[in-house]
Request: fold
Amino acid sequence: MKIATALRTTMANSMIAAMANGTTSAPSLEIYEGAMPVSMGLTIADTLLSENALTNSVATAANGVITFDAIGDDLSVNATGNAGWARIIDREGAEAIYLTVSATGNGGELQLNTINFVSGSTVTITSGVITVGS
Reply:
C-alpha cells in the first residue's frame, strides 16, 4: 500500500492529537521490558522500567513523519532490565500509542542512549520518530 503524503500527514496529526488528548494531567511515557503486546488494551505483564511525564507539546508532523519534541530531562529508571517497547498514555490516562524501542542507531521509533536500564540511574532519549504509512 502507498499513502499520499497529505493523507499521511493528516494521520500523523491525528496520532499527535490522540497522544495529547484531554486536560487532566500531562501525557506520560512508559518504557517496558519485554516484547510489545500484539494488541492494545491487554493486561501488561512486562516490567515497567521507567515512567515520565511529557511536559512539552508531545510532537509535530511534517510529510507524514511524527517527530517527538525534546523530552527535556533524562528519564528516571525505576527498575532494572532491558527496554523492549514503550507506550504513551494520554492526559486522561488512556493508551494512545505503542512504540518500538532501541539503542541509538538501531532503528527503534524511540531511540535511547542505552536499553540496559539500572534502577536509580537515568537514560536519555536520543530520537523519537514515527513514519506513518511505512
